[in-house]
Design a protein that fits this description.
Jelly Rolls; five-stranded antiparallel beta sheet
Length: 169
């Protein structure tokens, strides 16, 4: 199985992706964060095509996720960007602290590549105010689940977020 994973150049990722705003009780505003629907519903797959795609697998999930599902990125084609993208509901975020956390398992990859997370602050009309966070991840290809996270200050006028986890090979 490992040799197949090496050949495929794949990435298992994103069992839970939680974004919170500064509120009395923080709440996850991502829909289907653990892929427990068994699909990528509420996510947009960006860059899929022949030899490149995202599927949902079970029973494999991250450290902090309750459940049994995860999204699996498969890049058989070099120089391709593959991502999962979601826009949170209107009015879900306001100016202030935004925290994010997700679990990622990076499998060995024959294609190499880089993994990154991007979060854009959006106004109520859907225009990008700024890029709240854009992080390349130094995710070791050790076939082990790791939890990543951080926080940043959303500027005035922020109404919701656009979130993307992507892999470039």
């Amino acid at each position: 199985m490992k040799s197949l994973r090496n050949l495929v150049g794949a990435l298992v990722c994103l069992t839970i992706f939680a974004l919170f705003t500064r509120q009395v009780a923080a709440a996850n505003i991502i829909q289907n964060p653990g892929f427990e629907t068994g699909t990528t519903s509420s996510w947009t797959v960006v860059g899929s095509g022949f030899g490149v795609g995202v599927s949902v697998r079970t029973p494999d999930n991250g450290l902090s996720a309750a459940g049994t599902h995860s999204a699996f990125f498969s890049n058989l084609v070099l120089s391709t960007t593959l991502g999962l993208q979601q826009t949170t509901p209107l009015g879900s975020v306001h100016a202030g602290l935004v925290n994010f956390s997700f679990d990622l398992e990076n499998l060995l990859s024959s294609n190499g590549g880089a993994i990154s997370i991007d979060v854009w602050d959006m106004n109520s009309a859907g225009a990008i105010i700024d890029q709240g966070v854009g992080l390349p991840l130094n995710a070791p290809a050790d076939s082990t689940w790791h939890t990543y996270g951080g926080s940043y200050a959303a500027p005035a006028g922020t109404d919701h977020l656009k979130v993307e986890l992507e892999r470039r090979s």
